[in-house]
Amino acid sequence: MWRRGSGSDFLIGREVKHPFTLRLLLPLAVAVLLPLPAQAEDIPTSARVVNVTSDSVPGWSPSEELERNALGAAEAYFAAVEQGDDAGAYRMTEKILDLAEDRYISDNRTFREQAGSLVARKFNQVTWTKDSPAAPLPGIFVAMDITAKYQKIDRFCGYVVLHQGDPAGPFRVTRTESNYIANSDATHGSPEKLQAMWQQLSANCPNYQPLDLGEAADSTIGYASVAEALVDLRSRKKATFEERNGWTVAIDEEAMTMWSFSPPDYPAYPAVVKRTVVPDGAGSRIEMAVQCEASKEACDALVRTFAEISGMALP
């Protein structure tokens, strides 16, 4: 379990326990089987919601162009880090980062070795302040809450803070915070322990949201559709059916498999969850496959619900 942070202590309402770069490695034995400020104000502008702290210049709100510029600067910074252009990334930082370039480069190299290539990144929420009395410099500060996934890290969250001193000037990074569990550390123990540790670590990430779950290109349940699966299972003499809270449950004891079909009034409908008990060394584990034909949001929620019920740890 790792927590890395570097830069200015001005976090736009975020609490920090370790003000400068650190790497904290705690004992981890797990296995994977399958505050924003309370005073922040929501200012609606056309089709978007802008979060501005209450100690910002009264009435100020960032334009859409300014938001695009800030997001572009953050993306450019992370791209430089991930592509190994550490000198270029360092030039995108503000002087108040207060971190020697050689240490900065060393830390980035270590992280790339741990993480591998980027798989996905999502900006969860953006929070702004302008000329805040608490800020170390005049101008605009913006904090972006992040969730990401890397080749070797499924669980990653954090944030980046940027500053623009001159209205015509660029945004520069003043702080980054990363919280993650490397996949290499998630190799022994129970999924419950892994989930508990991730909940503890991700609590350091304001507005944390998990990434959307990935989708298989083809069906993973052995049928092209939910309806086809239900029809075929009903034709099997050895499959038994029962109703549980509106769900249709089919049990195939010979295959050690349970099929759970969602009811019509469930958000993820039609959908079926297939859970199979398979040998695993001296014990066994549950493998899960899902066919969901509802919205992406509803299907992701379904998968997370059944993973929790089955004791599986999802990022």
Describe this structure in words.
There is one protein chain. With 315 residues, the protein is of the alpha+beta class. The chain folds into two domains: 2-202, Nuclear Transport Factor 2, Chain: A (Roll), CATH 3.10.450; 226-309, no CATH class. 24% of the residues lie in helices and 31% in strands. It has six helices and twelve strands. A seven-stranded mixed sheet has the order 1-7-6-5-4-3-2. The radius of gyration is 23 Å and the shape is elongated. It starts with a strand and ends in a 6-residue tail after the last helix. Residues 15-46 have low confidence and may be disordered. This is DUF4019 domain-containing protein. Pfam families: DUF4019.
Record the SSE blueprint.
Elements: E1 2-7, E2 41-45, E3 48-52, H1 64-82, H2 86-91, H3 101-115, E4 118-130, E5 140-150, E6 153-164, E7 172-181, H4 191-202, H5 226-235, E8 239-244, E9 247-252, E10 257-261, E11 271-280, E12 283-292, H6 296-309
Parallel strand pairs: 3-4
Antiparallel strand pairs: 1-7, 2-3, 4-5, 5-6, 6-7, 8-9, 9-10, 10-11, 11-12
